[in-house]
Specification:
Elements: H1 5-19, H2 34-52, H3 61-69
Length: 70
């Protein structure tokens, strides 16, 4: 399977927006590739969840660092 560059560019732009806290964007796909569509759907669902409850994924950074170091 070869993923179209156009889709990869959309995913890159979308994930960049997510990292900046912009949960209003979505990926619109018109590809037949099931795997690419599932990835886009998962990212869209994550953005939906974060828009509804932006605090749902809050975490204690120090606790995360401590866990990682262990």
């Amino acid at each position: 399977m070869q993923v179209p560059v156009e889709l990869l560019t959309k995913i890159l732009d979308f994930t960049g927006a997510l990292l900046q806290g912009d949960y209003s964007r979505r990926i619109i796909t018109d590809y037949e590739e099931d795997l690419a569509t599932q990835i886009a759907d998962n990212l869209n669902k994550f953005a939906d969840k974060m828009q509804v409850d932006p605090n749902a994924h809050e975490f204690d950074q120090q606790a995360t660092v401590d866990t990682f170091i262990e």
